[in-house]
Design brief:
Elements (H helix, E strand, L loop, with lengths): L4 H9 L8 H11 L7 E2 L21 H12 L1 E4 L4 E5 L24 E3 L8 E8 L5 E6 L10 E10 L1 H17 L2 E3 L18
Parallel strand pairs: 1-3, 5-7
Antiparallel strand pairs: 2-3, 4-8, 5-6
Helix pairs in contact: 2-3
């Protein structure tokens, strides 16, 4: 079907009246995949205030692909267990595990970090998205450039609709995360007493 210019604008503008929350979008995707609500817990996602304004999938792909994309842009992670649980990043700690329970014997660091080469860390990230304020046309927002010997720019393309301000806030948050993720640490062994706690990322 072909649209004349005024009709086409109304068609493209329709997603603006169907703005949904991250929690609702994730629940809809899980339902389409046949996952029962009793098998997952996404209650923490209700605290995410940035809406899902639009999302499109241009090819047949597993539901996991769409869920991972939402997790990447709205900063949450999946944790396996009795239920599939979505955990927000940046939450406050709920418990502090004593150092002695992490297997530290005083001879070495219990949580060693392996730092990646500075050349592997991008100096800037570019986010390409659908700008809802410009008739859903593709737009690109750039993070602040980090002073570094490396001058490369990492490009991230997402089939999601954001305002320019939302996209800028996303990329500003993702840039320091990208640098921190280059640090890799070994997961410590915990005692049986601490097994009930699920590890998560603070950022």
């Amino acid at each position: 079907r072909q649209f004349h210019a005024p009709q086409r604008r109304r068609c493209l503008g329709r997603p603006m009246s169907t703005i949904t929350t991250v929690s609702a979008a994730v629940a809809a995707l899980l339902a389409r995949a046949g996952v029962s609500p009793s098998d997952y817990d996404i209650s923490e996602l209700s605290a995410i205030t940035t809406p899902v304004r639009s999302m499109y999938l241009s090819a047949v792909a597993p539901t996991r692909t769409a869920l991972e994309m939402l997790a990447q842009c709205y900063f949450f992670a999946w944790v396996g267990g009795e239920k599939l649980t979505a955990r927000r990043r940046g939450g406050a700690p709920v418990a502090t595990i004593p150092w002695a329970d992490l297997g530290a014997d005083g001879s070495a660091d219990c949580l060693p970090l392996r730092l990646a080469s500075e050349l592997e860390v991008p100096a800037q990230i570019a986010l390409t998205y659908d700008n809802v304020g410009n008739d859903y046309q593709p737009d690109t927002q750039y993070s602040d450039r980090i002073v570094s010997e490396q001058v490369n720019t990492e490009t991230l393309q997402v089939p999601l609709g954001f305002t320019a301000a939302e996209a800028k806030a996303l990329i500003r948050t993702r840039m320091p995360q990208a640098r921190r993720l280059k640090r890799r640490g070994e997961a410590p062994e915990r005692t049986i007493r601490d097994r009930a706690w699920q590890p998560g990322r603070g950022s």
